[in-house]
Amino acid sequence: MLIKKEYTGKYLLFSILSILAASGNMGVIYLINRVIDNYFSGTQLLYYRYMMLFGGALILFFVCRSLAARSIINFTQKLLRKTRMEMIRMVLRSSYAPVIREKARIFSALTRDTDNVVNASVNIVDIFTNSIVIIICFVFMGQLSIKLLGCMLVLLCFTLAIYFYSERMARKLFIAAMARYDVFVKYVNEILSGFKEIVVERKKGMSIVEKHIETAINDVSALNQQAQIKFLTNRIIGQMGFYVFIGSLLLFLGAYMGIEKSVVINFIFLILYIWGPIETVVLLIPNLSQARISLQRITDLEKKISEFESDKEQRRVYTGFNNLLFNNIMYQYRTEDDPADQLFCIGPVDFNIRQGEIIFISGGNGSGKTTFINILIGLFAAHEGEIILDGDKVEISQLQDYRSLFATVFNDFHLFDELYGIELIDPLLMEEYLQVMELDHKITFNGEKFSSTNMSAGQRKRLALIAAVMEKKPILVLDEFGADQDPRFKRRFYNEILELLRSKGFTIIMITHDEQYYHCADKLFRMENGQLSPVVYKKDSQILSVGLS
Ligand SMILES: Nc1ncnc2c1ncn2[C@@H]1O[C@H](COP(=O)(O)OP(=O)(O)OP(=O)(O)O)[C@@H](O)[C@H]1O
């Protein structure tokens, strides 16, 4: 449904205003008709009366048309804003994987598809009011001559039949064009995300453009062109039909049917007038066609990105925990096309964290560490097994609450320009962390954001860690934090900062390859081909850390 029930009142108001404007317009036409009649019959005109009525009709048209236009513009903008906000909120509520998968479609939905749907919902009002004008004109025409009206309706039905047939063909072209537009958006994102690499080697950018963007843009424009041309050709055919009808009416049809000249002139005048509203309706049909497709796409997208959605709102925020237990947890990547297609699998994993522990996870590339972390923090819902938090099983519907246990610094972290989502920031604590992370000489914090985030990769990662600890979540999850740090700071980080964070109440889980610091962990695990096992770590023939789950 392009029109939402909650806005019925608004649409009704627009329709009434538009109908009143159309009545003013029709009044003008009616008066002109009467004047033509009087000319032919030679009756004396009551100029004064006609001028008053003419003025009244014009004022009615002007006032109602302006009011309708203004309210429609305001409403469209409000609806657009509301629809976009609803969609953004839905994206924020959705779980991780579907949103990442549907990025390009989400962008198209937020821009083009919402535009199409909102504009079309208002176009429906235009179509409705113009249809009323057309029907009133038909009544006038019928009063003038039923025979001529019959001819006219046959012509109109014929034109509309061709038009709706071509609309079905054009819709297929619009669907294909929109799918190709998603590809265009995807590769524009690719260029923007990898712009650094592209500037170093411009050929990469050109290659993306030549291989994907250019063909996608060409396809979008060719498909839209074909669809629009189908509509345009029919419009021209329809117009030609009406001209032929007017010509034949003037030249022989009127005389052949024995219809009076004044009736013929009046009828032609009405045909010329009715052409405007007919054109409006006909011109809006492609918009409606596109809007129907956009609406379908938005609905499909909503289904896709809410498929694993848990709670609509977060109900509980965990400020602490004692024990987190993973029992027989399994997760398997699946392809979208064929869910039965078996890809990399994690588990079964048994894992136990107690409050205040420092846990390291090591393992080769592609062994499954990041996937495990994603399950641990609730980004991926495990396909089998159970998560027990302080004795209670965490259901999939509670993952939203469960995630409040964690603050993260991912390997490919994103540093937001402000500390979003933190209500009270203690300036003294911030100052302390800036000193601990050796950034106090580089940047300041103004209560909302840092003076700059333009720093080295290692410094940015330290800043991301500050942002994470400021969230005051019970568990800190760090993915290869040491990788970008210089040896001196790395030493301090493992030997001092981890202990400092523990003393502040944090439990820490780290993915790390820094073997020389494995002894800093209470438990060390190794991930191999999706299997997580505790490691007995030896240094100088001494057992330093035993990972026991
Ligand atoms: N979205 C995905 N769909 C299918 N397979 C995936 C997906 N993401 C990762 N994989 C596969 O899962 C396996 C584990 O990947 P993961 O990123 O967890 O490894 P990792 O141990 O963190 O590696 P690295 O140390 O290189 O970061 C890899 O073989 C990878 O190809």
From TrEMBL:
Keyword check for 4Fe-4S: no
The record, for InterPro entries, names:
AAA+_ATPase (IPR003593), ABC1_TM_dom (IPR011527), ABC1_TM_sf (IPR036640), ABC_transporter-like_ATP-bd (IPR003439), ABC_transporter-like_CS (IPR017871), Cyc_pep_transpt_SyrD/YojI (IPR005898), P-loop_NTPase (IPR027417), Type_1_exporter (IPR039421)
Keyword terms:
ATP-binding, Membrane, Nucleotide-binding, Transmembrane, Transmembrane helix
Q: Where in the cell is it found?
A: Cell membrane
Where does the ABC transmembrane type-1 domain lie? 12-290
- Mark the transmembrane ranges: 12-32, 47-68, 120-141, 147-165, 240-259, 265-285
Q: Which SMART domains match?
A: AAA
In its UniProt entry, what is this protein called?
A: Cyclic peptide export ABC transporter
NCBIfam families reported for this sequence: cyc_pep_trnsptr
Which source organism? Answer: Chitinophaga oryziterrae
Q: Any one Gene Ontology biological process term?
A: peptide transport
Entries under PANTHER family matching the protein: ATP-BINDING CASSETTE SUB-FAMILY B, ATP-BINDING CASSETTE SUB-FAMILY B MEMBER 6
GO CC terms, sorted: plasma membrane
Superkingdom, natural source: Bacteria
| Domain (ABC transporter) ranges | 324-548
| Membrane topology of the entry | Multi-pass membrane protein
Entry GO MF terms: ABC-type transporter activity; ATP binding; ATP hydrolysis activity; ATPase-coupled lipid transmembrane transporter activity; peptide transmembrane transporter activity
